[in-house]
Amino acid sequence: MSSPTIEAGAPVIRAIFRRVLEVEDVTDDTSFFDAGGDSLLATRVLSAIARELGVELTFDDFVIAPTPAGLTTQVDSRRS
Amino acid sequence: MSPGTASRAVVIGAGLAGLTAADQLLAAGVEVVVLEARQRVGGRARGIEVAPGEWVDAGAAYLGERHTELVDLLARLGLKTAPTAMEGDSRFMFGSGGSTRHGRFPPLNAVALGDMFELLDELVREVDPHSPWLTAGADRLDQLTAADWADQHLRHEDARLFFPLFLGEMMAADPADVSMLHVAFYLRAGGGISYLNDFEGGAQDSRVDGGAHRICELLAERLPAGTLRLGEPVVAVHDAADAVTVHTERASYDADAVVVAVPPRLAQELDVVPAVPHPRATSRTGRGCAVKVQLVYPEPVWRRDGLSGWSVNAEGPLLSTVDDSPHHGSAGVLTGFVTGAAAHAYATLTHREQVEAATAQAARIFPDLPPPLAVHVTDWLGEEWSRGCYAALFGPGDWTRLGPHLTRPHGRIHWAGTETSTEFFGLMEGAVRSGRRAAADILCATQPEAGARS
Question: For burial by CB atoms within 10 Å, which of B190, B217, B248, B450 has the most?
């Protein structure tokens, strides 16, 4: 099932990744830490997700699924 | 030498900046005398021998690959680096009891810390990296202390707890004393918040094998015999019609150019004639608040428990610890950082009290730690010839007052030192760049046809 929030959330999180990592090439499967991310930058992503999508994830949530697709699923499950 | 060429130079301060300048001037055929107040070279880079042939850094220690001038210098001197990469879990002492976690992220609210880093990153992006005093809103930001800024912007208690720890770790600053413009500039000059914070791939990627002080020792060995004068503090620099004369308590040295390569608070105390029109430091310019504690054990016993030696602690004296064990040695060395306000308090203790407090805290952080074989305490706040470490802290209003004049020569007097480098300010890289810049200024100023020399 394709939820409308995933459709809405994934581009937002991809854009957050691009801004925080300062890279252009981000897909739904880009792994944050492989793309140059570190724990400090991860907190900035979590801050932006809370601001833009209204869901507060924890650092451990982030580490479990550090991709736009994975985080979108997490955001979506918190909302439902 | 052609007319107008500097043939004699005096360098004040045998730290990394001064020795780099001296090396460059010597290579260009200038006669150089280096005057050093201490009985050793190295300034804020100092080694401690923790086991036979095994040295650790009691002062400046780390470098990363963006520190290109330093990397180049190490290669030329034949020095190697050792990675700081750590394996194992971290310890965190927040609230009651400690916790053990994978990675370096503390058990604090990640969104709250992220909010703080987003705000900081915005400031870092906005600051003018070459002329911080020209940043939009510089006056307002320069009047604000980091503590004021935190009061205004940080709502969550975890952010309020972590902010001073972060500033302590990054720049050995007490938020109450440092200008927020300086914080933004410092983070920018160091390559951004993330680069400055990182070990692997960041500004703490590596250490100098054998100790960072070796850089200065090897540079000093290249000076011609008799041209390095240790234990000779400079008291005055007088620039007259035909020469500039540097006076120590023992002797006077005439030169065509002088490089003042000492921290700003010391530069400010020199008797310079004619007087320097703009201060090198003000009453608000603070000492970098760092005391480094090295606890030596027979081996890195924490590794047996799967711990990396890294810890972050809400209470001092040791606000963070890192495994500094020599790369190829058997000794285990835990380096503790006492920074910011905690350093001021710790510096007032007796040596015995300092050792006891550090030993007891290390034992609370790391279970099963045996008594240390030795504890070395290096109090940079009390170092007369450094006045703090990692670097001077620009207080409210300092960038506005000092910034425009940091690198501008005063007649034949040139300024070096990591605090005169807007690139990697406060780091060894900044010191090297400042020394190269001061030497180049002297060579350019006196050799208008430098291009024709080769």
Answer: B190
